[in-house]
């Protein structure tokens, strides 16, 4: 019987009825004065008196047992060490309540509950080495400054940001666009485990829900909603990070963008954001200075970020010539370098290997090289 449910269980049921959607849930919660039990006990006529709640949605709510297996969900949570935090729980992130359509609850894996102010670092899945380096360094420095790093556990920039925070011994939270029992992308299994032990993995989606075109934008609104600011490191004009940036702007949060090369599509989104008013950042101190009005004790100097002085490296003339080809941030492969320098391909390969050993260049997964 519906009357046997606790309020927490009622929240879990409402959250599990994904066909209702966050906007529909907001209208229902507003209409029934935030009482989840009242929604599940309401008559069809009472439900359909709410704006844009039609027969399909009212049927889903009235017959929720046919659409959501509460007992199985609770068993999965217990087995996986997952908690569900409803919107009326004190541990529910306060900033999310400022959103227009906050989730009625969140699944948490890990004991961390965002006690530190959070900053989102997001960007392209197809990052360059430059983007990877920036995201990792920002993750390290902001974590050392006391911020929790929020991102989406995706390939590319998200992964680099999470790893940066963890390497600094800081806190990081990964927001998934699927159920917590699904590791996506699968190669981030180890990272998933590390974050769940040292930070938290969270999602609004029930167990078994796979990622799709609908879930990723929903995930992105939570990434922005949890954070006092969002930093976009690399993004194409139509990249998912631009959706997160839009949500951050709509929620009145600070928005930062890292510039890149003007001829590189992976930075075109950042340049558009900067043109439209996002704060251009070239180092972590730029972020800290903008956030001083919220955290006056931060100071203007990022003392937690170590200043690295590059060691003096001796280069042969041909090595200098090859390094010069990368001026301006060029990404080149060995064939292009051989053509530019008129060197035999075998000699170029040897020079590239030497420069890699000297940590002056790095090879990307697509076979192209970039200067570090």
Distance between the termini: 63 Å
Shape verdict: elongated
Q: Work out the strand percent.
A: 5-15%
Structural class: alpha/beta
Query: How would you sum up the major sheet?
Result: 9 strands, mixed
Q: What is the β-strand count?
A: 11
Ranges where pLDDT stays below 50 over 5 or more residues in a row are 299-312
* CATH domain class name of the largest domain: Alpha Beta
Overall average residue pLDDT: 91
List the helices and strands in order. Answer: HHHHHHHEEEHEHEHEHEHEHEHHHHEE
Helix content: 40-55%
Give the topology.
Layout: H1 7-16, H2 21-31, H3 36-41, H4 44-48, H5 55-62, H6 64-67, H7 70-80, E1 82-86, E2 105-109, E3 118-122, H8 129-144, E4 148-151, H9 157-167, E5 172-175, H10 189-198, E6 200-203, H11 215-225, E7 229-232, H12 240-250, E8 254-257, H13 268-275, E9 279-280, H14 284-290, H15 317-324, H16 334-341, H17 345-357, E10 361-363, E11 369-371
Parallel strand pairs: 3-4, 3-7, 4-5, 5-6, 7-8, 8-9
Antiparallel strand pairs: 1-2, 2-6, 10-11
Helix pairs in contact: 8-9, 9-10, 11-12, 15-17, 16-17
């Amino acid at each position: 019987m519906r009357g046997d449910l606790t309020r927490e269980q009622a929240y879990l049921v409402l959250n599990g009825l994904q066909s209702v959607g966050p906007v529909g849930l907001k209208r229902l919660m507003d209409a029934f004065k935030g009482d989840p039990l009242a929604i599940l006990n309401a008559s069809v006529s009472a439900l359909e008196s709410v704006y844009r709640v039609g027969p399909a949605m009212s049927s889903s709510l009235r017959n929720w047992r046919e659409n959501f297996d509460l007992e199985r969900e609770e068993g999965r949570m217990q087995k996986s060490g997952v908690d569900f935090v409803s919107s009326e729980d004190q541990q529910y992130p306060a900033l999310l309540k400022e959103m227009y359509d906050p989730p009625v609850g969140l699944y948490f894996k890990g004991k961390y509950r965002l006690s530190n102010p959070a900053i989102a670092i997001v960007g392209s899945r197809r990052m360059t080495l430059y983007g990877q380096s920036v995201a990792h360094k920002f993750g390290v420095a902001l974590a050392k400054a006391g911020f929790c790093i929020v991102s989406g556990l995706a390939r590319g920039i998200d992964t680099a940001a999470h790893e940066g925070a963890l390497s600094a011994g800081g806190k990081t939270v990964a927001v998934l666009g699927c159920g917590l029992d699904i590791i996506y992308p699968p190669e981030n299994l180890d990272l998933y485990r590390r974050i769940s032990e040292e930070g938290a993995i969270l999602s609004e989606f029930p167990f078994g829900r796979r990622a799709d075109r609908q879930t990723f934008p929903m995930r992105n609104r939570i990434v922005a909603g949890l954070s006092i600011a969002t930093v976009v490191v690399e993004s194409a004009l139509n990249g998912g990070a631009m959706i997160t940036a839009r949500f951050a702007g709509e929620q009145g949060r600070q928005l930062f963008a890292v510039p890149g090369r003007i001829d590189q599509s992976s930075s075109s989104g950042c340049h558009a954001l900067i043109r439209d008013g996002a704060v251009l950042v070239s180092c972590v101190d730029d972020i800290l200075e903008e956030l001083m009005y919220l955290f006056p004790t931060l100071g203007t100097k990022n003392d937690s970020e170590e200043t690295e002085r590059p060691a003096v490296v001796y280069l042969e003339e041909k090595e200098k010539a090859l390094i010069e080809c990368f001026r301006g941030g060029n990404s080149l492969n060995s064939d292009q370098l051989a053509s530019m320098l008129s060197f035999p391909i075998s000699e170029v390969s040897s020079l590239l290997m030497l420069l890699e050993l000297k940590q002056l260049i790095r090879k990307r997964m697509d076979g192209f090289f970039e200067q570090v």
